[in-house]
Amino acid sequence: xxxxxxxxxSLFITxxxxxxxxxxNDVFTAATIAAKDFLVTYFGWFYLFCMFVFVVxxxxxxxxxxxxxxxxxxxxxxxxxxxxxxxxxxxxGMGIGLVFWGTAEPLTHYMSFGGDEGxxxxxxxxxxxxxxxxxxxxxxxIGMSLGYxxxxxxxxxxxxxxxxxLLGEKGVxxxxxxxxDVCAVFATVAGFATSLGQGxxxxxxxxxxxxxxxxxxxxxxxxxxxxxxxYTCTAVKGIDKGVKFLSDINFVLAFTIMLGVFLIGPKxxxxxxxxxxxxxxxxxxxxxxxxxxxxxxxxxLGSWTIFYWAWWIAxxxxxxTFIARISRGRTIREFVIGVIFAPSxxxxxxxxxxxxxxxxxxxxxxxxxxESTETVLFVVLREYPLGMVFSFIAICLxxxxxxxxxxxxxxxxxxxxxxxDMNPGNGKKILxxxxxxxxxxxxxxxxxxxxxxxxxxxAAFPLAIIMLLACFCLLKALKSEDTKD
Length: 485
Description:
- 81% of the residues lie in helices and 0% in strands.
- By secondary structure, it is mainly alpha-helical.
- The protein has one domain (5-484): Amino acid/polyamine transporter I.
- The protein is globular, with a radius of gyration of 21 Å.
- 54% of the residues are buried.
């Protein structure tokens, strides 16, 4: 039991979440809301600062003399082709969010900013900020650091391994190291269950909108059970046979719907939105990164930007761990370019196409569409040729993205609870798959998903500190390696 202390503490935390969701949901929700509001009000600036540091550090390391260092021995080569590698990291890090928010976020911002030409431009610039370099840099910090220590220094696949230059081997294996790993598990459990819960609700809403499938607890149970069976089976098959195969399917489906929607939608508007928004994003990158609105109302900032920053940080451990696992043999420069630039460009294209699809409609139709965030995409697609076909593809994408995100979460949790084993046993994968499906189901039934969502935001605060220290540890290790040369 002492050897697997992180595993047992993790199980205890998950059990506590389930118990609170069942027995004291109102108190749990109220407490997490209060804690989240406190952090947003008094430490919103800290989230902004950390995310900017992650971008600057990642790019700085990549294009420095250390960029040529490999995540592994000097003679190691990548395990996966560029296409499969990109498909897996993209699906793990952001897939389901693009389908859900691709049209919904631009239209929501457009209406809240006044619903005119200036509001449309500002809405798209904010969307590019939220889904651009910042989130992927947060993933890159964990993935790059863990990949370096795991594959080049032969350390266990644990977040605590990153702190070897600071704590030493004894400190990493001691209470501080265990605390770091438990924080990573806490964020992963919250992020995984929240993502699966949201995906379940979105799938149910889409099926209801298209095929009048009722939005009931029983339907949600069926959806979660089906997803659990699929994501557990693919996780058990392993990355090569299960996750890689499904990620490749995601890749094809995503580009099929993106190209199709571009062709049926306002093509010229999509191109102009992409060019204009990209220019605005780059031009005001630094200013927007530090925009804390000190003399005005912070409600929008807390509900969107700071919320997103905390959300991406909370996702850092399990997404970063997964992309580290699939990136062995790549140089740091190749890793950062692949993890930050490539997915960001695809996200920019995606939001330009799907955002233009909605912004091309009249204001009255947009106002009607944003009444229900979960169905915005389907309401908008209905106004275009082949809208039902692309709506069905979107539901398929929601399902496959839910599964691939779950795969990365299960893999990370299994690694964390197996002393960092890069190939954790199937028993752990099955256990975590079933346990987290149960957690998601309980919280959905009890209405406690909001509390879990807030919990992941709270978990981001200590994680942000851990990630800042991870930057220091990685730089220290790289400098040490450089002096040896």
